[in-house]
Amino acid sequence: MRTPLHDTWTRRIAAFLVVGLVFTACGDDPPQPAPDGGTGLDAGTDDAGIPDAGLDDAGTPDAGEPEPDAGASCEPASVTAILENGEWDPRFSIAGVSGMDGHAPHVYDVTKLPSGDLVATGYFRWLGAQSSTPIIRRHQGQWESVPGTWTQAIPGGSGFSAVAAKDDTTLALATNDTFGERSGEVWLMTPEGVQVLGSFTGLVRTMAYVQDELWVAGQFEFAEIGAVGLAIWDGTAWKLPPGGPANGFVYELLVSGDDVWVGGAFSQVGGIASNKVARWDGTTWHPYDFPIPGNGVFALTLGDDGTPYAGGTFAYDFNQDGVGSIARWNGTRWEMLDEGVSTGFYPGVVTDLVFHEGKLHVGGCFNFVNGQGYGNPLAIEANALAVWSPDSGWAQWPQATSLNRTVWHSRLFCGDEPPEVFPLWDVPIQRFLLDDDRIYVTGSLPSIDGAASQSIVSYADGHWRAEGAEPGDGLSGGTRTLAVGGEQCAVHALGNMTHAGGTRVPSTVLRFTDSGWQALGAFPAMECRDLAVNAHGDIFVMCVDWDVFQSHVLTWNGEDWESLGDLREHGFASTMALDALGRPWLATQAEAASRVIRWTGEQFEVVADGIDGPVYALALRPENDDPDRPAFVVTGEFMHVGELPARRIAHWTGSAFEALGEGLSTSPITAAYGAHGIYASTNEETTLDGSPVPGRLALGHWNGTAWRELATPDNGMPSPMHEGGVHSFRKLMPVGNDLVVVGTLIPEDGAPTHAYVFHGERFVAVGGGINALSAEAIALTPDGIWLGGDIAEAGRGESLIPSVGVAHFRRRIEAP
What we know:
Blueprint lengths: L78 H6 L1 E3 L6 E4 L7 E7 L5 E6 L2 E2 L2 E2 L3 E5 L2 E4 L14 E6 L5 E5 L7 E8 L2 E18 L2 E10 L4 E7 L4 E2 L10 E7 L2 E6 L3 E2 L2 E2 L3 E4 L4 E3 L6 E9 L5 E7 L11 E4 L4 E3 L4 E2 L6 E8 L2 E7 L2 E2 L10 E2 L3 E5 L3 E4 L32 E7 L2 E6 L9 E2 L1 E5 L2 E4 L8 E2 L2 E7 L4 E6 L3 E2 L2 E2 L5 E4 L2 E4 L7 E7 L5 E7 L4 E7 L4 E3 L8 E7 L5 E7 L2 E7 L4 E8 L3 E6 L11 E5 L3 E2 L2 E2 L3 E4 L4 E3 L8 E7 L2 E6 L17 E3 L4 E3 L18 E8 L2 E7 L10 E4 L4 E3 L4 E12 L2 E11 L6 E2 L3 E6 L5
Parallel strand pairs: 2-35
Antiparallel strand pairs: 1-70, 2-5, 3-4, 4-7, 5-6, 7-8, 9-10, 10-11, 11-12, 12-13, 13-14, 14-15, 16-17, 17-20, 18-19, 20-21, 22-23, 23-24, 24-25, 26-29, 27-28, 28-31, 29-30, 31-32, 33-34, 34-36, 36-37, 38-41, 39-40, 40-43, 41-42, 43-44, 45-46, 46-47, 47-48, 49-50, 50-51, 51-52, 53-54, 54-57, ...
């Protein structure tokens, strides 16, 4: 099942095509091996630990051969100096709210105070660039962290699942245990502090004040009074609903005048039998028996004429219908509303409803309305949001079909799973609030259309508006590749971003300037996966045209993207690198064999072939006597190059391949070629009996004669956090005597995560590390280290800042 508004960047790629290394040469003259300065990488040998280039005419380029002209160096003079006197760049926050890596930031509930201020709460810890408690308010047109005296510790960053306002100074809050045993407390927050009203097991979904009594509903139990799903605080004590308890969970409270509507998964409440829906008028309970099977009713609203509407997860026949989950009361019974909503094959889920300007606005988890989706010409595509009119039926919610990206993981719950897994709290669309003519939409949604604000947006007059904080230069979607080039050593980014600095961007390369991100022209209808920029500023992007299954290298001419030429005779490109002359080299595969080709300036020509499997990474030696014929290393899922046994890695000397020892025992991730040798990272794999494959190199260094594991505690790389866990190095970048590395690196004991520099003897974290699902990209500029990936935060302790989609550790800017 596809979860709408979830980061599902399509990777239509064959199994053998894995994003490879982008090796960007920005140096002036190729660096020469330095004397051993305690690096531990055999720098003192004649070849500095680097395999011999093996050229017959090494050092004597042919007459007429192009000389290297890499331009000014873009590498920092000293990585060590930056690490010792650096700071994280604070510019890369985003609008809305944001949080730590892992579970997506979430606004679970929103309410309006009598003063007109709005209050929203959920799971987050940043409001733009500012640290925030997980409760914010919109005051005088601006969002701010709710002021108050927090005499009670906010639970472990998990925040609150529901909020209700008694008046302008008294808020009721339900704590939310996102990762634990699913239990919490109901709090009363006043100017004097926090009062804990009671504890429950489960989760609270909604709360409302009814004549000064606090009604609390959800998927919980209040053991002290025997309440299930619904409990009431009368100001001094907890009590059961009038007439008796519910016998199942209650997910929705709708207060309308003196009436309180309840919806959920019960069959009895207040002493009356009523399946899933009932109404309390202040004196008597009234049944609105809901006979349609399903997990329950999650949302209730009233039409302009008072007609009740119900949403949730339900269908007449889940195995046959493929639609459902929204119904209306016809005066005597409930009936499905124009077939309902669908994920394409199964009924969708409705989490909230609001009736406004004669239309029913619907949110939840669905892909189609007006019928089962795929193959049905009457079905209307709807990305978790839709509108319905009593006069015209279903329609798309204007400007709400764009699938925007996020760096956070949203769990693939949709709300139709069994109730015991608490799926409802993970549906991307959670709540609506109608404020005058504006509808606020909250949840874990990354943004909607051009309104790039994480977890909270609003809609009025046909347009979406970003909410929460003002945008910084953060990215909606993670950076997959970074490259540096041009006279200004500009940083360029490629990934699955939909917004940069709060502005919608096409699928293209982003260039960072003093005024923020600049989007180059939109790519043709291709998926582009690799990026390189040379010292002259020439930009090269490796793409796939899936319509004809053909690879291209595109270059930017200042106004448009153009292809360097037809690659079909060479097969499908898997990775790209630049040589010292700034020209692209590719590894390509046709059927079962791979080859390495290069761009001569006029055409692609074969350099080497006969590799009997896919190539994942291609890395060129940074210094070569003949820059037109550099040595390089390839790694991938192959076992031979021609007749030469070469297990998953091979070295090209300039004229022939050679094996590097016994090769790699497990599947490679990437490789790099530095002044002190060749580096490779590999995956953890197991044998048939479940044991780890022996000899795996998490991060290996080839010193010219043997492989050595670098990622060891003795070298300063802490062990993985979980027993049996492993480090996964996704990108390696040698620079001088150092090696910058990023990946999925989650050490034990709270050590810095994901980004390190190896100085030849020890690993040192970059700025205390970054919080990310994974880091995948590195770029070096004279002023610092740029990191890309699904990044949420950078730093530790007092240096912790939000840094979304990209992070920059730069030379410290001294105050004037």
